Amino acid sequence: MTKDKRQILTVAEVNAQAKEVLEHFQVWVKGEVSEFKRSDAWVYNYLTLKDESAQIRGIVSNRVLAAMDFDLQDGQEVVVFGRLSVYERRGDYQIKIEKIEELGKGSLQEQLEKLKAKLQAEGLFAEEIKKPLPAFPEKIGVVSSQDGAAFKDFRKIIKARFPGVQILLKDVLVQGDSSPGQVATAVAELDKNNLVDVIVVTRGGGSLEDLWGFNDESVARAIFAAKTPVVSAIGHEKDVTICDLVADHRSSTPSNAAEEIVPDQEELFRQLDDFASRIKQVRERWQDFPQEIDQLLAGIKSGYRRFVKDRALSTELLYRKVLALSPEKVLARGYSVLSRQGKIVRAADKVKVGDNLKAKLAKGGLFVTVKGKSKK
Known about the structure:
The protein is α/β, with parallel strands linked by helices. It is 36% helix and 24% strand.
């Protein structure tokens, strides 16, 4: 008799797995209210949302109902926000409602989509106008709450990766009616007179209502008007605000913003050591080349470490200088290296008419015979 290799679950196990999967989902749902039952004796009230072809059960607390500015009744078209939940004993799933709005009365989601369409039509989200981030910022302006976890996480990672960077914080409310005005003003102030190299607007995650200040038109226009590159790091990766769309760069979290804005100092030092080693190998291969190579090698490491301390130079500049003086680059400009029996010829009086020489070029080489000499 063959052994049954199927994985057979109990009903309870199926319902438990369904609960684990479904209860991660937060959703906005629109539909018609039906079978609404208010209960004064229980914390939760029950209703059904339906459309032409389906329905879903819902529960809503007295607290949520008390916060509404209209009376909930059967037959009303509404938009609700909530989290899916599973009642394991019966295998039923429902939506635990956290907010209810009248459909057609300007729900937050409808307002958001309308403003998105308006700003997109005006070109505020266009990729081609977004400014690049500086490679090595000296001063970072941050628009956030000084007491929030978002700013603390951002600052911690910046200091760990590149401790010489200065952080200038504009402490603002990141939630509530006053938040948009404060955020827009802070962005404009940091943008004045090249005060900082990059501006970061950040806060932690939350519901659509919590993040609503970052869907405000005044904030979007302040970011768009800024000459300084702006990074938006609002909420978690799944949260996308208008602030994210109009910014020059969007980071999925405040911590990721810090990692994307500044390099890792220790990694730069490792790259420098590797770079210096490779240049040393080039010098050994061309030990008879002019003294400029030796002089450049002597200054590379001290010059780079001075850059890290003073935050004034760039690695790319040093790299280009090295390449400009490398033997290959010199030969590429039309010069050649003459040698006789493996030794480089530096002066005409070191050879005789009739001597056979080798000329190394940028590509390949020539064997030449001395036909005559001159003093110039």
